[in-house]
Amino acid sequence: MRFKHNNRTVPFALWPLALAAALLTACGGSKPPPPAPSVAVTVQTIVPADVPVTSLFVAQTQSSQAVNIQARVSGFLEKRVYTEGSSVKAGQVLFEMDKKPFQAQVDGAAAALERNKAALEVARANLARTKPLVEQNALSQRDLDDARGQFEKAGANVAQSQAQLETAQLNLSYATITSPVDGVSSFSVVADGTYLDAQNAQLTTVSVLSPMWINFSLSENDVERIRREEKAGLLKPPENDQFIVEIELGDGTLFPQKGKIDFADPSYNPETGTFLIRAVVDNPEGVLRPNQYVRTRLVGASRPNAILVPQRAVQQSAQGHFVWVVNESEEAEMRPVTVGSWHGDDWFISEGLSRGDRVVVDGALRLGPGTAVTVKEAETKKATPTTPTASN
After folding, report:
1. What phi, psi does 254 have (nearest 5°)?
2. CB 342 within 8 A of CB 389
3. Residues 129, 130, 132, 133: is their CA dihedral positive or negative?
4. Structural domains of the chain ordered from first start
């Protein structure tokens, strides 16, 4: 049997050589496959640092002194003097009651006082005449005792009349109702001409605007989380727990005055399970009003040696969160991480990363384990405390 190779007949015995020659001819012109192109990525090199953090809470304002204006005597309300809802000063007249009955009481008490003063002078003179006569045995000791008793009784009547006059004068002054503090007034509860007594003595309310109280609450879970993080060294409070309190108004602007915490409720609210905290802030322009909803920032805490990565660098799978890192061979490597709270556009990383790790922040969607990469370093930015890390 013969085999034709390149139009030549090859004997059967030479088939192996002919086959080897054919294979060498076929393989001699092939080239090895080109290496896969590297993927361009942007990385951020991990540098732990102390990061200032803030905590943001929904809060409500409260007047530091809301005074109920009440009538202190019974009588007819003559007129309201102030403008409802306006700012008032300490000592400013708000209401006038009918003064005629009180003036009559003052006049009567004054007359009684003068009468008793005259009786006292008569008793004093009588006592002065009785003493030498008793010494001369012209009058008895009993006459002296009676004269002394009349003098002391007259003195007591004068003191009583003086007290009654002062009471009447006080009642007359109470007929003019003034504000005890600077603040903003509320509406009038009663109309002019109403008879005021113990049952309807409430007239209005004056609320002090400066300083203003800011009330907010921490949940039980927040309190326990803060304690755990402080114990683990993940959160460092300011010295002596002196937080700076910033107020964010409804339109997002920052209130110019900063406050401080001045009270923390020693117990939890049994209905809400929250822990009340109160801050105090100066409000000289009266921008803040009572019962206004604001947002409160607590500034002063920090996270020591914290690791921050952009949120876009963190991905999630069925096994949890992970990031892509570039190893020493310039290849992509999947790294599981434990994430903490947000900090602006970044995420705190509790576990999984350490100093010097290069985390892929852009271009991660085209990566797989062992993918060769071309690295570009991301621009670094300074951490700021303007972004909240917790809220209620």
Report:
1. -95, 130
2. yes
3. positive
4. 39-53+306-377 (2.40.420.20), 54-64+209-301 (2.40.30.170), 70-207 (2.40.50.100)
pLDDT of residue 137: 86
pLDDT score of 179: 96
What does the block give as tokens for 203?
Answer: 């007239």
Please give the single-letter amino acid code of residue 254.
Answer: L
- Tokens 């080109």, residue? 34
What does pTM read for this prediction? 0.71
Confidence tier at 291 by pLDDT (50, 70, 90): very high
| Alpha carbon separation from 341 to 160, 298, 345 (Å, rounded) | 74, 16, 11
Nearest to 298 by CA among 272, 279, 273: 279
DSSP 193: T
Tokens for 392? 């209620």
Structure tokens at 157: 């009547």
Q: What's the rounded Cα separation, in Å, for the pair 281 and 227?
A: 26
Among 58, 63, 114, 116, which Cα is nearest to 87's? Answer: 63
Among the listed residues 49, 52, 11, 4, the one whose alpha carbon sits nearest the alpha carbon of residue 343: 52
**Residue 209: per-residue pLDDT:** 94
Residue with tokens 């049997």: 1
Q: Cα–Cα distance between 304 and 17 in angstroms, integer?
A: 76
Token pair belonging to 27: 């393989």
